[in-house]
Amino acid sequence: MPFTRIVILIALLLNFLGYTLIGQTQLSTKKEIDKLIHSATKLRESGNFEKSLLISRIALRKAISIKNNELTSENYNNIAANYNALAEFDKAIFYYNKALIVANFTNNDKIKQRINNNLGNMYCFEKKKYEKGIKFYKKALEYSEKISDSSQMVLTNLNITWAYFDVGRFEEGENNLEFLNKYHDKHSDSSIVVVLKMLNGMYYSYKNEKDKAEGSFEEAIKLGLDQKNKSDLSFSHLEYSKFLLKQKEYKRAYENLDHYTKLNEEIYAEEKLEKANVEGINFELDEYKRTIDKIEHEKDVQYKSLKKSRIIVLLFIIVLFVLLLFLNSLIKNNKYRIKSNLDLMNANEELIISNKKAEELSLLKTQFVSTISHELRTPLYGVVGITDLLLEEHKELASSPHLNSLKFSARYLLSLVNDILQINKIEENKIVLDNLTFSISDEINMIKNSLSFFAQKHNNKIVIDIDPLIPDSLIGDKLRFAQILMNLVSNALKFTKNGEVQIIAKQVKVQGNIHTLEFRIKDNGIGISSADKDKIFDKFVQVGRKEIDYQGTGLGLSIVKRLLELFGSDIAVESELGKGATFIFAIDFEYDLVKTIEIINDIQIDLTSGQVFNVLVVEDNHINQVITKKILERNNYSCSVVDDGYAALAILDIEEFDIILMDINMPLINGFETSRRIRQNGIETPIIALTAFEKNEITDEAIAAGMNDIIVKPFDPVQLFKIINRLIQKTKSMV
After folding, report:
1. Which domain holds residue 696?
2. Which PROSITE patterns match (predicted)?
3. Which of 559, 575, 602 is the last residue of a domain?
């Protein structure tokens, strides 16, 4: 109880001291800084640069302390304007740039416009770096248009036009001049009229429209005399003299050049006097700064000393408080330490056991999936192969609904096996996206053709809408993309009858070489209820089975979601019951013609398809023997078949082959051991593993056994022949 009271008392004391310190170091408000900025601006405009700089410096420090980017930028701009007036142009540019950097962190387009215009003036008319200055003018013009500030638009357009004409780039400044003429005709702005007439004279001179040019120059000189604007008038005389010289009117050209020289001498005399005043101001300013710095330094030392004393007292109280808390915690910890250690040891033991069980279960799951897939793929190879052979050898059966149903069912079962393996691969992070070149329109049309039988089954129509802005050739993982699209379209067809499924592809963003494409798969089927939207992407979950038994495993949408995650994307669904569903996703693809050509050039072209090669098939399943032999002989290959590894070793002793197709799972001696013995016998014939196992599971062992490649059953014959021909050609080129 006494300890609790001490803690409460110390807390109250700390709270009181904290509020006191916070009150003493309260930051300046925005209103105070605005007043300082206004005061500094007025002093600068009146020519009192020393005080303007001093007040701007104080205001800048306060603005930085309250982390206000707008006020900080205003102060940097004010400081730069002072240095500009003092003819210290490098310093002015330095502070204008600092002002622009800070302003870009704000949403204040007005100050961004002003600073960009100021930098344009500095580079064009002081540094004569026109290209750089014009870039700042153009940026200022963008902000003027954004905030609809017509007066600033006029001034910036005037500066851009003059800059372009100064360097002879009349065509580029033509639009800006046109804008100024329209504005003046509408508003009769007297502040720009002298320079505007002069610029028109320069433009007409460039166009060789002599009368218009002379009229514009004479109007500029007359208006300059009326307004007593020596600077604009002097420039008008100078440009008029250049025009007259071009017309070979030397006397009048000389007279105008003389007027320009006299006006410049008057302006120079005034500037010289002003410059002398500026030099004096600079000297007084430096002295004043040194005095102020000295006073501020002494003030900082005193403040730091006072602050240090307060910190020492505060730290002493904090240390005392911490020591009391530490003492209390030691007493409590001493009571519970033994119990906590014992609980932690028990928890660690349970965690180790759980982790070991999880690893064992994961391994069992992988082995189970691998075994099941192998056992299913082997007979599927026979079913799919025999169906294809029947359809090819007996053309009259092509329209048989029974044979087509058999083929569809076999393909469906194969798709189920592949889906289960796909989920397993994704969960174990075994999928890496490829970079292949492909056409979006070709892929979508191929998917449409592949699913046409399925669409006809439910009397559905597949409609394609592809954005013409999408490039013809893109780079990405086209196989995974096709799998996503195939699953979504087949899902839409499954839940739609007598309807329409739309495949819509649209380009939504281009950033460099990356094109972002949005895809919508839209149907007018039974739709999805709000309650089911969150479930449909889970594994083995299906909706809509209450009234009709829709086929499927519930893996398709789960695979889609996980594949899109590999692309760094996600999928959304819009649907209502009875009103169909729309699935929406976006994928980034690369568009690079150079890279596309490199990928195409890297694709190996089969140059040996016209030759007859001798193939040895090592396969224990008699149905698979028949199918493989038929496929090979149908494509002009000579084929010998043996039942096991020992028979293969025996025939290789007496006969030479160009390639060996080796099954893995065989009795007596498996494919790996057979391959090892073939290599031990010094036979270099290429060996392709023809297996129902998943490729990733046997790659390491196949390489170690001396095999050259792997192809998974059921296989695409075209892919098989590509691999065969590539390996044979490679072997022959090494001889």
Report:
1. 614-734
2. HIS_KIN (PS50109), RESPONSE_REGULATORY (PS50110)
3. 602
Q: How far apart are the C-alpha atoms of 524 and 544, rounded to whole Å?
A: 15
| Averaged pLDDT, 395-423 | 59
Q: Is residue 514 part of a domain?
A: yes
pLDDT at 365: 55
CATH number, residue 519: 3.30.565.10
Mind listing the pLDDT tens digit for each residue in 170-212?
Answer: 888 888 888 878 887 777 677 778 888 888 888 888 888 888 8
Measured from the Cβ of residue 222, the count of other Cβ atoms closer than 10 Å reads 14
CA neighbours closer than 13 Å in the CB half-sphere of residue 41: 10
d(CA 286, CA 284): 6
Q: Are residues 476 and 582 in the same domain?
A: yes
Of 621, 707, 722, nearest to 660 by C-alpha is: 707
Averaged pLDDT of the chain: 78
The residue assigned the tokens 């053309």 is 395
Domain shared by 730 and 619, yes or no: yes
The three-state secondary structure class of 475 is: strand
Tell me the C-alpha distance between 727 and 687, whole Å.
9
Neighbouring residues of 281: CB distance < 8 A, sequence distance ≥ 6: 49, 50, 86
Residue burial 7-29, b: 16+ Cβ < 10 Å; e: rest: eeebeeeeeeeeeeeeeeeeebe
Same domain as 645, residue 586 = no
Handedness of CA 270, 276, 282, 287 (dihedral sign): negative
One-letter amino acid at 161 equals T
Q: Domain of 688: which CATH number? A: 3.40.50.2300
The torsion defined by the Cα of 82, 88, 92 and 93, in degrees rounded to 10, comes to 160
Assessment of whether the complete model's pTM goes beyond 0.70? no
Neighbours of 454 (CB within 10 A): 16
Give CA separation, 67 vs 59, 60, 63, 99, 705, in Å.
12, 10, 6, 14, 69
Q: How confident is the model at residue 557, as a pLDDT?
A: 80
- Are 552 and 668 members of one domain? no
Residue 113 falls within a domain, yes or no? no
Q: What is the pLDDT of residue 662?
A: 92
* Same domain membership, residue 545 and residue 500: yes
Domain count of the fold of the chain: 2
Tell me, yes or no, whether 22 lies in a domain. no
Same domain, 509 and 657: no
Q: What six digits make up the tokens of 44?
A: 């600068």
| CA–CA distance, 223 with 282 (Å, rounded to integer) | 37
Environment class of 487 (CB within 10 Å of its CB; exposed 0-12, middle 13-18, buried 19+): buried
**601-659 pLDDT, tens per residue?**
655 544 444 567 899 999 888 888 888 888 888 888 889 999 999 999 999 999 999 99
- Strand 614-618 and strand 659-662: the pairing is parallel
Which of 602, 635, 670 terminates a domain? The answer is 602
pLDDT digits (tens, 9 = 90+) for 433-481: 777 888 888 888 888 887 777 788 889 999 999 999 998 888 888 777 8
Shared-domain flag, residues 595 and 483: yes
CA-to-CA distance for 152 and 132, rounded, in angstroms?
Answer: 19
CB 625 within 8 A of CB 661: no
Q: Is the domain of 635 the same as that of 575?
A: no
pLDDT at 407: 60
